[in-house]
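User: Predict the complex.
Assistant: Input components as received:
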Amino acid sequence: MTHDLKGTQGLDADADLMAYVDGTLPPEKMAEIEARLARDPEARAATASWRHNDNLIRGLAQSADALPRNMRIAALERELATRLQARRRRAFLMGPALGRIAASVLIFAAGWGAHGMFGGGAQMAGAQHPQFVSATMAGHYAVQYAALQQAEFRPDDMDTALEWMSAQMQHKIESPKLERLGYVVESARLVSTEAGPLAIFHFRDEDGEQVTVSIAPHAPDQSDYKLRVVRMDTDSMAYWTEAGLDYSVISAVDTGRITTLAAAVRQ
Amino acid sequence: MSIKSELTEHTASLRRYALVLTRDATAADDLVQETLLKAIAKADSWQPGTNLRPWLFRIMHNTHISDLRRAKTRSDAAPDLPDPVVPDHQHTQLELKQVLAALDQLPEAQRMPIILIALREFSYAEAAKALDVPLGTFMSRLGRGREALRGIVSGLASGKLSVLNKKGSI
């Protein structure tokens, strides 16, 4: 048998009293509710009872933390993490994000003159097409991108990479300093574009968050780009010109974080 | 935060929720395992970029409801939840037993919101999402459930109801 007792005096529908008990009452309402509780014994009794019952239930729930580790649960948790990571990768590759990849490659291939097409910030070229078109575009540009790549370096070849890249670009370039933010360089590559060579560095932190930084000689016939931060669907990008080089930083973070990353690269 | 570390947190939360739902450590772990197995099978239904926690709790909620229905079908003699199994060391053991017995008297639709909010791990909106109901419905069920729980506990404490004695759990 179950009970479905109606509350008295409408207390069961009082959102403020519930928020008070659950600690979500806005501070500006706190004094008002406390004054009400002081003069309304029924409301006082109700809130005290709700809170007490919650505390008892939570106490039982928290006793689960003292249970022995369950190896089967741990194994299932790992398997689920693997599946969800794969799901996230697939969604990224098959969804509108592919348009962003294609667009990013377009930026590299066409040089910074193409940046104006992303002036709105929110929509990349591929995202305006049906998904299969975005996928086709990405496939097309991925092949093109691979063909443009001149060399790829692993983390332990970074000194050699920077020396060689600097020679190719006729500019001394340094590895972006993202280590202080917890990122480790995974690889570096040099890509040929119509506008000249482009160095791309891939970083990752311990949580698997990826950051891509590109450096290219600035076209002398174009004015410098001031720092600009662009928010896309799930990623953010920052780009600017400094000391004759164009920089871009891309990651699946918010604009505040991408600004921090850009600042670290600029240092 | 990576999916792996996020999942570790959520699994701990699922275990807490499962313990309140089942009142038994073994049954709670079974429920968590069943939930994770279903989540693995349904991994493609998760939308990347959305909060994992309500998705997982919705799977656990539905799994638990199915388990209850199966248990009810199997045994008409034991239509309610298992008798509470609670830690011995709590000086509030009697009160907890009363509250758990009172919870069992509530309809499922009111019991779940009370437990989810008591965990203090969900906003109202997240909890509503976990139970797959509109926020307004959730708030209404939470409020009515809390008041109903208060009424039953009060009745139990004053001896007007003898639910616990009938169940032989005290």
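Chain A touches chain B through 57 residues (CB under 8 Å).
Let me know if you want any component modeled separately.
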